[in-house]
Amino acid sequence: MADPRMLRNLDVRVRDRNLKSGVLSKKDVKSYLEGLPDVSRNAEAMELRQPGFAYEDDEMDGCDSTDALDGGVDQAADGDGPDGLGETDEAESDDDM
After folding, report:
1. Distance of CA 88 to CAs 63, 75, 78, 97, Å?
2. If exposure means fewest CB atoms within 10 Å of the residue's CB, which of 16, 27, 47, 62 is most exposed?
């Protein structure tokens, strides 16, 4: 195993700074990277879906794919008010009390 101090200098988060300051040389970095074992056979492909992103194969209740791309179904369009909760105006709610 490599010297822990050398590994710390090769850390990608500080490597550029160490190259500029002369702590590391490009030869050191190249030698280290070439010495790493190939572990690509251990990799496994994964499909990750981003929350909130519309996919063509998703089934959405009450909207078509163009609604999903525009941000979904407009809840205010059903006549319940701007927030979709049944209140149409805050001023009207305060006057009724």
Report:
1. 23, 12, 12, 15
2. 47
Q: How far is CA 69 from CA 49, 54, 72, 78, in A?
A: 16, 6, 7, 19
User: Which residue is listed with tokens 């209740």?
Assistant: 61
Question: DSSP secondary-structure letter at 86?
Answer: S
9 within 8 A of 15, measured Cβ to Cβ: yes
- Residue matched to tokens 């101090």: 5
CA-to-CA distance for 62 and 72, rounded, in angstroms?
9
Give the tens place of pLDDT for each residue, 63-77.
555 555 555 555 555
pLDDT in tens, 12-57: 899 999 999 999 999 999 999 999 999 999 999 998 888 888 777 7
